[in-house]
Backbone:
C-alpha cells in the first residue's frame, strides 16, 4: 500500500476531475458539537464533497472528539488543517503540513513544524507538505499568523511565492484570503498562479456562492475549500446548495 494514500487520492482526483472540493469544519464548540460536526460532514460528502478538512486558527479542546465523529460518518479522507501544534489529532487520516511562507514570524514558517514533526512520526500520520500563503484580507489567520498579507492587487507577488513554493519542494500551495473573509482570492491572482506553477494549488476563504467557486475553478484552482458556506447552509437545506455547487464544478468545460 502507498505510504501517501491521502496525497495519492487528492492528486488523482485533481487530475481526473475539474477540481477537488473540500469541506472545512472548525472544531469550535460555539459553532457545533462534535456530533453535529459529524452530521455536517456526512451531508457534505453526500452532496459530493471529496474530503473533510478539520481545523481553525483557534483551538477549543474538542478536536479529537470532532475528528472521531467525522471519521465515523464519512468514508473520504479527514485531513487536519492545523492553526498551531494544538491542531493535531492522531485520529485523522493526514495533516496538511503547512508553512506560512509570508509570515513575519519564523515560528509559523518552521518553528511549529519542528515541534510537531516528531509527534506526527510517532503517530504514523501522513504529512502532506503545503505552502500556505495569506492574501488580503486574511481574517483571523492573518492576525494569528503574523502575516505580511499579499496585497489583492499584486497577483505577481502571489505567483512569485507560489513558484518559490514549488522550487522549495512543497507538494501543494494554498492561496487563502481567510475563513469568513468578505472577499475571496482575486481571479486574476488565481490565473497568475495557475500560469506559473506545475504543482496543484488550493483556493479558499470567502467562497460563498456557486459563481465564486466556479469562477475560481475556471481561473485554474485545482482544489477549492468551503467552510463558512457549508456550515451555514447545511442546517437549512440538508446539502442542496452545496450539491448544486459541486454539480456546477463538474459541468465546467475546460
Ligand atoms: C479557511 O479557506 C478556508 O481556511 C475556508 O474559508 O470559511 O470562508 O469558506 P471559508
Residues:
Amino acid at each position: 500500500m502507498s505510504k501517501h494514500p491521502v496525497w495519492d487520492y487528492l492528486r488523482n482526483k485533481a487530475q481526473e476531475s475539474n477540481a477537488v472540493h473540500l469541506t472545512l469544519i472548525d472544531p469550535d464548540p460555539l459553532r457545533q458539537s462534535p456530533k453535529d460536526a459529524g452530521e455536517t460532514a456526512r451531508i457534505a460528502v453526500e452532496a459530493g464533497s471529496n474530503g473533510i478538512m478539520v481545523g481553525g486558527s483557534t483551538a477549543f479542546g474538542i478536536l479529537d472528539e470532532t475528528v472521531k465523529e467525522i471519521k465515523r460518518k464519512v468514508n473520504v479522507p479527514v485531513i487536519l488543517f492545523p492553526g498551531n501544534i494544538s491542531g493535531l489529532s492522531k485520529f485523522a487520516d493526514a495533516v496538511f503540513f503547512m508553512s506560512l511562507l509570508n509570515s513575519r514570524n519564523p515560528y509559523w514558517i518552521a518553528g511549529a513544524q519542528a515541534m510537531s514533526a516528531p509527534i506526527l512520526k510517532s503517530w504514523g500520520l501522513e504529512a502532506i507538505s503545503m505552502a500556505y500563503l495569506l492574501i488580503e484580507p486574511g481574517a483571523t489567520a492573518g492576525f494569528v499568523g503574523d502575516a505580511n498579507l499579499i496585497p489583492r492587487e499584486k497577483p505577481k507577488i502571489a505567483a512569485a511565492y507560489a513558484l518559490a513554493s514549488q522550487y522549495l519542494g512543497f507538494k501543494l500551495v494554498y492561496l487563502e484570503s481567510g475563513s469568513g473573509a468578505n472577499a475571496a482570492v482575486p481571479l486574476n491572482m488565481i490565473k497568475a498562479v495557475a500560469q506559473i506553477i506545475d504543482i496543484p494549488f488550493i483556493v479558499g476563504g470567502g467562497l460563498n456562492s456557486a459563481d465564486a467557486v466556479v469562477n475560481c475553478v475556471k481561473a485554474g484552482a485545482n482544489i477549492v475549500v468551503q467552510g463558512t458556506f457549508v456550515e451555514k447552509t447545511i442546517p437549512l437545506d440538508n446539502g442542496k446548495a452545496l450539491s448544486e455547487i459541486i454539480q456546477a464544478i463538474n459541468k465546467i468545460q475546460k
Remarks:
- The two ends are 33 Å apart (CA to CA).
- The CA atoms of residues 200 and 234 lie 28 Å apart.
- The chain has a mean pLDDT of 97.
- The chain is about 45% helix and 15% strand.
